[in-house]
Every structure is written in C-alpha cells, then in structure tokens.
Write a sequence for this structure.
DNA sequence: ATTAGCACTCGGAAGTGCAGAGTGCTAAAA
DNA sequence: TTTTAGCACTCTGCACTTCCGAGTGCTAAT
C-alpha cells in the first residue's frame, strides 16, 4: 500500500495524462488541491513511483507517464467511478434497437452505441446460453427440391439455411418432417443435438431415411450456428485517430479482423464478476500491448450469456467508461431477461 | 486520338507506375520493346502528354505520374484485359459460400473473396429485384403475446422480425392469419405491399382487425427490409497500407462507414453495360478523389439486381482486376439464376 | 523532511550542405 | 523535319549540426 501522498500524486498523474496525452511534469502538479508541497518534493515522490514501476519517462527530460502497473494500481485502488449524467444515459440509450426484439440486432446496435459514445472500437457477442432450448423448427419449401429450414431458440436466436433434397418435397414429406421434428427436437437443449444424435435419429427412420437425412443434417448445422455466439466488432476506424497507434494502426486493425482471437478475448473472463478491465499486455496478445479493454457480461435471467465492451488505447478514461458500460449492460440484461425469460415458464402452444 | 508512339509511352507510364508506385522517368522507358528511341525523344513526347493533361510531375525533378485523365485514356483505349490464370480463378472461387443457398451469405463471402484477392476494399449489394414476389410468410409463436414473423422471397431473401400482439396468440388466430396471408400476400410482388394496401386489408378484417393489425404492420416492415438491398463493405483496413492515403486514411474509412453514399455509389451505374470503372473524382464524392472503383452488376435471369466491386487507390491494376471481377460476377449470376430462376416457373406446392 | 538552486540530459525544430534523379533546352546529326 | 547528345538547372531526401526549452536529479541550505 502506497503512502497517502504518493497515491494522490499517482492518481493525479494518471488522470492528467489521460486528459491531455502529454507526459506530466512535477511543476504541473504543484497546485494540486490539498497538496501543499513544492515541485522538488513531488519530484522525490515521482522518483519513488518510478522506482516502483508505476510511472516512467519517455526520455530523460520529459515528464512522467503511467506504466501498465500504474494504470492497474489506479484502477484497482484510486479510481472513483464517475456519476453518469442524464444526458450521458440518454446518449447511450438512444442508439439501441430493441423494438425488433432480435437479440442479435440489439447487441449489434449496442456496440454501435458504445462506438458513438466512447469513440473507441466496441465488441459485443450475441447470447450463447448453454441452457437455451429449441423453440421451433420450420421447413419452408422454396423449389421442388429445395427448402429453407428455420430454427428458433428460447433465447430468441433465429437461424435459417437452405437445404437441397434428393427427392421432390411432397406434402407427405413435410408432414412427416414436422412430426419428427416436433417429437425429437422441440424443447431440447441445443447441446443435445450432435452428430451422434442425428445419426441415431436417421437410422431409426427406415425407408424415409434417404430422402430426409439432408434435412436433419441442416438442422444440426443450424443448431451449431445458433450455439456459437457471434462477435460484432465496430468502430475500428475510430482507433486510427489515436496517436498511440500512430503508424502501426493497420496491424491492430488486421488483428481485430481475425475472429478467432476476439472470441478468446471476450470469453476468457475469469467468472461473472461483472465488469473486467484488461490493460495492455494483460490481454495476452502482443498486438494489444498498447490497448485496454473494458468488458462486461450481460445476463438473461441468471445466466451470463454474452459480453459487450470496448477496445482502445491504454490511455482511456476508465472512471467514466466503466460506469457507462455497466449501465449499458444493465439495460441489455434487463431487456433480454424480460423478453426471453418469460417464455421458459410458458411455452405450451404450438403451430 | 493520340499518335501511336505517344500512346505506347502513355501505356508504359501507366503500367509501370501501377506496378512500382514510383514516378517514372524518361530513361526507364528507353528500352521499351519495339520502341527504339532515345530518352530525349521520350522526354519530348512526355512534355506533350503533360501539356495534354494525361500525365503530371509531382515536382520538377521527378518522373511522371498519370493524371486522372491519363488513367481514363488508358482504360478506354490502351488497356488490354489480362487472361485469368487457373490459379487466379481458383483463388477467387475458393472463398465463396454457395452451399448455404443464401444469397446474402453468398454476396458477403464474394466481397470477402475479392478482398483477399485484390487487397483492396470490396463492396457488394444483396439482390434487390423489383420483380421479386413473396414466396412464403410464417408466424412462429415465441411467447403468449409475441411471435416471430418470417418472410421469404422468390430471390431467396429471408427476413424475420419479432412482433408483439395486444391479445394472446391462439391457434384460431394463427389459422386466421395463415389464411389471410395465403390469400393476400403469396405470389404478389414486393412493391405491391405498402401502407395503403395494409390499411385496406386491415379495414376489411372487421372484428379481428384490432388483434391482428400489428402482425400485418410487421409484414410491411419485413417487405420493406427485403426490398432494400443491403450493402456489404469489407476489407477497409487493407486501404491503410497504401501510401496514397497516407495520413488521411481515417477520413476515407469514416466516409465508407456511412452507408448512404455507398448506396449511391453502387446504384448510380448508367445502365447494365456490365462492368463500370470510375476513376478518382468520377466518383462524385470528394473523399474518393484519390480512389477508383470497379463495379460490376450481377443478374438473376435477365434482371440486373445487385452489384459487386472494389474500392482502392487510383493506382490499381485495372487490366487484371477487370476480368477478375467480371469472372466473379459471372459465377454469382449463374449460381443465383440456377437456384432462384427455376422457382418462378414452378411454385405450386405449399405448406 | 522539505525546499531552492543549478548543472545536466535529451528531443524536436530549424538550418545547412550534398548527392542523385530527372528535366528542358540548345545545337548538332540524320 | 525529326532525333539525339550534352549540359545546366531544379528540386527532393538525407545526413548533419545547432540551439532552445522542458524537466530532471542532486546538493546544500532551511
């Protein structure tokens, strides 16, 4: 634990650097409210902070800049989250599209709202709830030997895919399909659908197996697609503006375009302890060593299902962004819970 | 019409500049195959070309660089399209996802294939065929007072939206809905669905009007969404690498993020004369004055319905890109026509 | 423990000089 | 009349130096 005065100085350095982007020198801190010491004393403290690794100087004759450890100490011990003003709330909320009722749409627009609000890049994932169950499966004929299969889950995810059959689609076939689907798929968790399950099912069909198996394979594909949470990234071009990325912004953008690592990033949260802040190399990718992420998980009912957050330079206003993202997450959780929780307790009717 | 020799010199300048990105000087052209003149003569010709506005020099002691007019002349009169190699074709094709049968998916992946192939940004639009008709509309109950409405068109576009009703959804209601939909919507062109049509329909419903009108409003929304072609843009970050955008790449990316002008860009083609090349300020936006576009329209059957193309710096390899994009367009047209044309001649069966 | 004072260090801006590339022009050659 | 060789000229980009200001660490005094 650092001594009081040193803490205050560190906090001041971090906050001022966040605001101005310039290294901050000892003189600039002389008239900190409630800190009546000369610049020389401050210099001594700064030397200590430097020795302890919380701040550093870009070059001998420059002021100090927080190190990653400095940000971390600030975030853990010194920062006090800002109160969100009414106008901020409205700004965050205004971009959301919940009227469509589509969670994917909501998360997409939530990301964009964050982009507008923060001027950073935003990342969001659609719900991936292992407790989700199959709500409905429809077959819609498109041409004699082709049909669209539509899958709907209890978390509101809707996926569809075209499927070619080997034989013409008759009304009989449709009825049979609807019957099998109703008996074998409705209400079961997505995780129960897998290759083995499909194979045993097809094997049990007897004569019809040949003509219908493509349909069930398509169902498996759809379940797969619905289980995997989609990742939305937006506002990447905002990052170009920040001088910390100056010349190698392209490298960062390229990294962000690859989907795989992104999935890791949002999913790797230890638990559902709410909001998570990762500074610089705490994100385990070299490309992010100059970036920070603030990630928050949203829930449907009591299950954490997805995440939303931002990516930007380590020099970001944590004390304001944390409550903002928390606020947004709360809205999302509430809305999704309202819409998709009620169903689990009441789905008896069927088409 | 320029004299033979001057044409050849202009073509050489354009091609060499495209390849190297460096201004090309008179000496570099001395040993052009079949052009046996000294650098001095070439200098004279270059002076002429400069006077006519086809080339320019960045500064006194630099070589020449094509102007916009120079590129235009080259593209119109001098360029001869490259033959596509087998490997090129495979590279283009390999990224396409036509197995899903979903045109939106196909166009999306086609854009990404172009991004990989060209290292530029790609733009593509989903089919928007004014002749498309409604193929199917399904209502899928989600909770007592909420249903998903799913719309499918003859061009394979699938749209869905959640809809809240004022009264609980009963089996009766579903049957009534299915009946009305079948009678009033199946097989009619998208353009026939509008506010007036919906209002008269609802008015004719009598007692049921109140409970069902939200459903039909949702249908109108879906039709609207299906009529409008979606624009996919990808590979923007590729553009960062080109030095012609050096410091103001952010400006271009911001421009590309706004959707409205993009729609203009792809739709504004004069006619369906196949491929269209727009160089620099021929795109009417100031942000694109250093960029070129190559846009090609694809067709379903005989109707031009959407476009796909690239955006990059004016210094792009037109002679190779034009046939590549043409090839890709042909694949798309062929596939979409195969899948979605046959239906128009054969949709009798229904669920 | 704090402060004033001072020498020291370093980055960035501005200025200087130089080599190289490419041009336009002129006068001779074809 | 067209082409060519030769040359003076212009301009960029790079390397090098100089200089100023900001900020530091250290020392000696309070």
């Amino acid at each position: 634990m650092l001594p009081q005065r040193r803490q205050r100085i560190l906090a001041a350095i971090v906050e001022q650097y966040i605001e101005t982007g310039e290294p901050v020198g000892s003189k600039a801190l002389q008239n900190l409210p409630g800190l009546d010491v000369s610049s020389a004393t401050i210099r001594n403290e700064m030397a200590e902070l430097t020795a302890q690794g919380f701040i550093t100087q870009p070059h001998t004759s420059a002021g100090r800049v927080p190190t990653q450890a400095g940000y971390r100490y600030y975030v853990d011990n010194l920062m006090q989250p800002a109160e969100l003003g009414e106008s901020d709330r409205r700004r965050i909320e205004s971009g959301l599209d919940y009227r469509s009722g589509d969670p994917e749409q909501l998360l997409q627009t939530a990301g964009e709202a964050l982009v507008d609000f923060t001027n950073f890049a935003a990342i969001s994932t659609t719900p991936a709830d292992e407790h989700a169950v199959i709500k409905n499966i429809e077959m819609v004929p498109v041409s004699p030997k082709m049909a669209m299969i539509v899958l709907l889950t209890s978390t509101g995810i809707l996926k569809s895919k075209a499927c070619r059959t080997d034989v013409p689609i008759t009304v009989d076939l449709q009825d049979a399909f609807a019957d099998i689907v109703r008996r074998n798929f409705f209400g079961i968790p997505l995780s129960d659908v897998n290759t083995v399950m499909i194979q045993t099912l097809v094997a049990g069909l007897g004569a019809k197996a040949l003509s219908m198996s493509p349909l069930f394979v398509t169902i498996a594909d759809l379940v797969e697609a619905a289980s995997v949470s989609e990742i939305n990234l937006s506002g990447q071009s905002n990052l170009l503006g920040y001088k910390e990325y100056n010349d190698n912004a392209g490298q960062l953008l390229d990294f962000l375009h690859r989907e795989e690592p992104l999935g890791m990033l949002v999913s790797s949260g230890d638990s559902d302890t709410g909001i998570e802040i990762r500074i610089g190399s705490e994100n385990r990718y070299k490309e992010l060593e100059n970036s920070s992420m603030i990630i928050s998980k949203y829930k449907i009912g009591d299950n954490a299902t997805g995440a939303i957050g931002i990516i930007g330079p380590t020099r970001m206003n944590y004390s304001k962004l944390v409550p903002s993202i928390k606020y947004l997450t709360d809205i999302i959780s509430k809305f999704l819970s309202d819409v998709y929780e009620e169903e689990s307790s009441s789905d008896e009717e069927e088409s």
